[in-house]
Amino acid sequence: MIIMIAAIAENNALGKNNELVWHLPNDFKRFKSLTTNHHIIMGRKTFESFPKPLPNRVHIVITRQTDYKPEGCIVVDSMEKAIALCPENEDSYIIGGGEIYTLGMPFSDILEITKVHHTFDADAFFPKISKSEWQLVEAEENFKDEKHLYDYTYETYIRK
């Protein structure tokens, strides 16, 4: 299955200047637990936002740059090529950024969304989740605390 995973604000904001605009440690833990030992598909800018490749994951980077060859990554120039490299009988994750989410939406079977209950100034946005195409099947509310400045909800959508 192809699973899109993202943390998005109420206004669909993803981030600004290639960085997240919030810090939710529990969301990082969830992201790690879901994506570890799987293929992850991302754009070049998302890959470059990491201090180093994420451990125990196969990195597939989509870019138009023909000479881009980061160590330990598979580089392709389209979403179709990225998905073709993912094992058919395993979960694979599309992890961003904004343009990659838009390209990946038609290929995705499940959306794993962390909805951050706040609006942010941003330059990258998640595509609109169409209620006619996606059904919310699970929601788990989490409330702000000393480590989390905002309320947030884990939402799982399946394609109708």
TrEMBL record:
Keywords: NADP, One-carbon metabolism, Oxidoreductase. It holds the Pfam family DHFR_1. Pathway: Cofactor biosynthesis; tetrahydrofolate biosynthesis; 5,6,7,8-tetrahydrofolate from 7,8-dihydrofolate: step 1/1. Gene3D superfamilies: Dihydrofolate Reductase, subunit A. It catalyses: (6S)-5,6,7,8-tetrahydrofolate + NADP(+) = 7,8-dihydrofolate + NADPH + H(+). The keyword NADP applies. SUPFAM superfamilies: Dihydrofolate reductase-like. Its EC number is 1.5.1.3. InterPro entries: DHFR, DHFR-like_dom_sf, DHFR_dom. Residues 1-159 form the DHFR domain. Key enzyme in folate metabolism. Catalyzes an essential reaction for de novo glycine and purine synthesis, and for DNA precursor synthesis. Belongs to the dihydrofolate reductase family. This is Dihydrofolate reductase. The lineage of its organism: Bacteria, Pseudomonadati, Bacteroidota, Flavobacteriia, Flavobacteriales.
